[in-house]
Specification:
The complex is a heterodimer. Helices cover 42% and strands 24% of the residues of chain A. By secondary structure, chain A is of the alpha/beta class. Chain A has a domain of 163 residues: P-loop containing nucleotide triphosphate hydrolases (Rossmann fold, 3-Layer(aba) Sandwich), CATH 3.40.50.300. Chain A has a 6-stranded mixed beta sheet with strand order 6-7-8-3-9-10, sandwiched between helices. Chain B is mainly alpha-helical. Chain B contains 11 helices and 4 strands, in the order αααααβββαααβααα. Classes of the chains: A alpha/beta, B mainly alpha.
Amino acid sequence: MLLEVRDLGVRWGGIWGLHDFDLEIESGEIHGFIGPNGSGKSTLFNLIIGRYKPTTGHVKFDGRDLAGLDPDQRARLGIAVKFQITNVFPGLTVLENLSLGVMGPRPVSRLVLKARDQAKTNVENAKQILELVGLQDKRHEIAGTLAHGEKGWLEIGMALAANPKLLLLDEPAAGMGKDETMRTVELVQRLAGKRTILVIEHDMEFVRAVAERITVLFKGGLLTEGSYDEIKADERVVEAYLGRGRHDATA
Amino acid sequence: MKRSLLSAGQVAVLVVGVAIVAFVARGESGIQQATLWLVLGLFAVSVSLLWGYAGLLSFGQAAFFGLGAFCYAWATTDTLLAEPLAWNPALIGCLLSILLPVLVALAIGYFLFYGKVVGAYFTIVTLALSFLLGSLGQGWTKVFGGFTGIAGVPTLSIDIGVGTFALRGAWSSYVFAAVVLLLVVALLSRMLATPFGLAVDGVRDNEPRLQYLGMSVVKVKLATFVTSAGIAGLAGALFAAESNYVASDMMGPVLSTEAVIWVAVGGRRSLIGAVLGAVLVRAGGYVLSGIAIDYWMLFLGGLLLALVLLGSTGVVGILQWLLAKVSARKDRGREAAGAA
């Protein structure tokens, strides 16, 4: 088992952002997370990457308890993330962004001492990723000037660049048009079988297209878990999430 | 690689230009002044590395510059010791002037960066450091010479076994300062062209993102801070050797702030810009010193305010902008000619 979450919870003042949460993820799985706003999806991701400290419970990754580890230490173990609000290096070029993704988990001392070899492999790996996310033509452009969708792909590329064992995608298609969303779906589908991916998405079609299993969160807790068809048929899910009408949920 | 050579080459052109102007204007005494400007240019390079490249604005960089100057003075005079060091005091002084600031920066940086002191808080702590050392120097007469400072600091003279390498005369001092400046700029541009340099860019542009990519950003910042302190310390030693005098205000907040102004004027994300800024501001003050020095300080303060408010990239930024304009017009001219 790659990721094991037990009894995980976080409390701010009197409010539990997430509580009594359990999760098991096998290697190679693509797992979807849905739930209304504030149901705890992003909170779960932030607990896994080390942005928040849990109040209860623990996260085990690759057989190792992550308690007390900083975000960079977790990333070096092989956890990568694309944030909900697109987060790239706005003043650097696309290729530089991806190079930073490649060299991210390397020890700082090696960046200077083995500079020549490193620079070469960085650019080579970055070029492969460039192709994967379809930004070859934009490689020398400043990331801050890219279109919204392109920034999103760039960030996914950055996260993939260091060959992570686990990739977290927090609403990878948020704010994207139909064509862009399709391209993002294709990108995730191309990774299927090769990567373990957790993906949060409000777009039900997106989740159906990429995820084998789906977890539904509601008010900081686990509501249910299953395949798309099982979830769709579940009365409680319809009530909590789809209940307000199909149009709202797919919008 | 190409960029690093370019940077050192640009500084070389600047250095030669300054020498010619200074010599034509004031002869030997102009060259003596110009040597000090180059040494301050080296100090400005350390500020540019820290602020322009890593995005860490320090108002305490003179603390390291002044410490370097005192290291040189302690090794070469009888202030701290009964008499100057017997073997190669100037060489040991120069080495100490790098080592002590590096160690101090390592200790301070360790607590600041691991303690997650960032942004304006980092700047405030560095300012406090400069105030602390500045007033410590004034009070602690035995070590720092108090208000009068330490006079009679000897010019650089190193025993190299087969003979003595000594700086005699204004020109040899100038050439030596220029060579040290060029070496440091070349090495630094080389370092900034490695993946480590890209990591430094990443820290400036989006530190949290870099951390979530697995980079130990604390180590990147610490390495940059320490390198910058070492360069500032070496510049301090050269300044002490050249001016034959060290005083506690060389560690204080006024010089720290002035260094930030130089770099803002020249263009903070450019090593040549830093040198250019130091030379321009200091040369401007020198030329106007007899006439209107008070107005010069007022002008400098106003200039800094304007540069910060306009978000300017300094003289180098303006030159680059002008060059881009000119080349764009040329392209357009060529296109028009082609069409005709």
